[in-house]
Every structure is written in C-alpha cells, then in structure tokens.
Design a protein that fits this description.
By secondary structure, the chain is mostly helical. It is 21% helix and 0% strand. It has two helices and no strands.
Length: 68
C-alpha cells in the first residue's frame, strides 16, 4: 500500500493523472479534515456566554460545604 497526499480544490477531490487507478487496481480514499470538528458542549457555551440573572449571588465556600 502506498500513501499519497494532495489537496482538494473548491471541495472537489481530483486524483492526479499519475495516481488514477487502472482497470486492474482500486484506490481507497480516506478523508482527513484540517479543520477541527468539535462539537461545543453546554459547559463551553455557558462559559463563553453566561446566562445573566437578576439578584444572583453565588454560593460561598461555606455554603457549598454545608450541602455536602
């Protein structure tokens, strides 16, 4: 097996002529995106855009430990 790397053009995959398979062999294509495909979770969203609430005051350290 041989690994060959080339870039796409306008979202189209074009195999360079010298790498095109003939009728006796096949090509296996693996796509690796250079963009990070990350799904933001709810914690990330809330950290970047916290919900604003009137009259909110966070628990003190003592109040947190009382609940445990």
């Amino acid at each position: 097996m041989e690994a060959i790397e080339f870039k796409t053009k306008n979202g189209t995959i074009q195999i360079p002529k010298k790498y095109k398979p003939n009728k006796d062999n096949t090509v296996k294509v693996i796509i690796i995106s250079e963009q990070k495909a990350k799904q933001a979770d709810i914690i990330d969203k809330l950290l970047t855009n916290p919900i604003q609430m009137a009259n909110f005051s966070p628990f003190t350290r003592e109040e947190i430990h009382e609940r445990l």
